[in-house]
Design brief:
The protein has 3 helices and 6 strands; from the N terminus they run αααββββββ. With 143 residues, the chain is α+β, with helices and mostly antiparallel strands.
């Protein structure tokens, strides 16, 4: 009888522990935030490298980071179709253009937008352009 109770207890505990996990993973807002954090973690060296070159310093301070825009470049397939299609890499990958918004960067605590693309053969992200937003034009980002 004790073995049946132990097995039943283990099964019940596993069901109870899996319920929050299932609801947590199925929530689209949480999933989107997790995907954004994962991509930002992968881009961390690109972001810090870009900021080091912009501010001409070895160390950079960042208050908050978010992906404010993701676009997939499009090309016209045929003039008669008037329909645009996504540009694909030759190896089957996808090209993207990202805008990364940062706040409280550098000694003046500027807001910065970094523009990245990955349209190279290796599909590695590289800095295309940036914009420093200071003073009254600065926008508060959510952390």
């Amino acid at each position: 009888m004790k073995i049946k109770q132990c097995v039943l207890l283990v099964v019940l505990m596993s069901v109870l522990f899996s319920i929050p996990t299932l609801s947590f993973a199925s929530n689209p807002d949480v999933r989107e935030k997790q995907l954004e954090e994962a991509l930002l973690q992968q881009l961390h060296s690109n972001i810090t490298g870009a900021l080091k070159s912009i501010y001409k310093t070895e160390y950079v301070m960042i208050g908050c980071t978010e992906i404010s825009n993701i676009q997939q470049p499009e090309a016209m397939r045929d003039q008669s179709e008037k329909r645009s299609v996504n540009v694909d890499a030759m190896n089957g990958g996808k090209y993207f253009e990202l805008t990364i918004s940062l706040c409280r960067v550098g000694p003046k605590e500027d807001n910065v937008e970094l523009y990245f693309k990955n349209d190279t053969a290796g599909a590695n992200y590289y800095l295309v352009d940036y914009k420093i937003i200071t003073g009254e034009n600065s926008q508060k980002l959510t952390e």
